Amino acid sequence: MPSKYVIHTKHMPHRFEPVIKSGIIAWEEGCLKCAVCVKKQCVYGVYDNRRLDPLQMIESIDNQCMNCFRCVQGCPRELIHKSLNPEYQALGDSYWTPDIISDLWDQSETGKIPVSGSGYPGPFSGPGFDSIWTDMSEIVRPTRDGIHGREYISTAIDIGKTPVNLTFDNKGNLVKKLSHIIDIPLPIILRMPPFGSLGDKTVQGWALAAGRLETLFALPQDMIDDGLKNFDQWLMPEVSSLGFNPAGIPKGVKIVEVPYCDEMDEIVKDLRDFNPSLLISVRIPMSEEMEERVLSTVKQGFAIIHLEGAPDGCFHDDKNRFVKDGIRSIHIKLVENGIRDRLTLLAGGGIALAEHATKSIICGADAVFVDFPILVALECRMCRRCTMGLPCPVNIESAPLDWVAARVENLIGAWHSQLLEMMGAMGIRDARRLRGEAGRAMFFEELDSSIFGSMGEVEEGCELE
Ligand code: SF4
Ligand code: SF4
Fold this sequence. Notes:
16 strands; 14% strand; TIM Barrel; Alpha-Beta Plaits; binds iron/sulfur cluster; 13 helices; 8-stranded parallel β-sheet; globular
């Protein structure tokens, strides 16, 4: 059995006070001046230790409060309240919600699985990945605990064309040469996010994290400079259709990505002339034409395809179709054509939570690209000020290299633990077996149509009696 893949996490504190979900509002007017004020009774000493952070102009009280509500309930004049913080509610957008951002911050700090307390309070279905329910029927088996248990759960995957069979001669030696593949110990590839206030150390920190995690870090080829020379083997350069120069690809690189475009054949020829052993991934945007493009790309002999969704987890040209729909439809199409095992399907766009990675694999992806979460791991608030040339509120560009790498390792460590938890609960011991295993999930749309489909559609304006 191969040695167990473990991501070593260590507590890595925030550099700035995080934006907290709720704040304390304490009125002075009408105070009875009780002999022992409830503020003195706070077991966490929140009121006694309050101070002002002059750099961020933040009072410590909200960040230290543990939300026990003792002071709120104990004040006889009801002068203490807790209220939602408008700054928290303004974080991110409708997809990268404040709760997702805050969860990513916590995981990057602690490296641990987030615990939401007493039960799940949210809705049971929603758009995109939220419409998939995973089958956790094996959760009762303690040996299936992949994190601490005895059973080994492998999250490793292969990238490239795996052989259909192996042929041996009479002496037991392999007859056919094995095709070139890369194996990575977890189905997650880091990818440079589309925006961010980035410095040299940020990019190097991500590359260092990819190396320590033994995965890949995809980034535009023109961002590769001397500062990344020690990380060649973990880099996945994304070449551009404009002004492509193969000489700019570092020697140790094993895989590059080309965009699906008119110049693709020319770029690929140049790449193969430059280094015949390079693996080539073709990036195809999730849109109306993707099916036809994927099939033609596979027919041309390419063995790695990257289906790229939009950052909000939808198709680029249709906000009613989601990344999970795109992965599933392509996976099924490849199976129907009998060519699924000829290629590795990578997917990305809107992968915001560990469960999104698992659900993408259930839908048929071999691995996923993670982009914005590695920026949020560095305390990004998704405010997009950097896209307007304004200063970053958390100075991401000045973050030290080791801090960047450790935060990303913590985040991916927490995701890896969640992947193990989900796989263990589903009774799956190998991530390669999870691919396309739709029998381990229920899809809300399918259940809805099979149960209520015969009742017809409720038309707009129609009143139900
Ligand atoms: S809610 Fe609890 S932890 Fe927070 S300040 Fe009041 S007593 Fe302290
Ligand atoms: S916090 Fe805002 S300015 Fe800084 S990287 Fe994130 S989106 Fe850009």
